[in-house]
Amino acid sequence: MQTYDIDVIRGDETVTAQLRLTLKGQLNLQKRFHASNTSEILLTAIDSPEKLAAVLGEALNYIGNTNEIKDGAELYDLLVDAGVRGDVGFAEIMTELGRHSGIFADEVAEGIQTMTRKTVEEGLKRLQGIAPDPAEETAEEAAKN
Question: pLDDT category, 105, cuts 50, 70, 90?
Answer without folding.
Answer: low
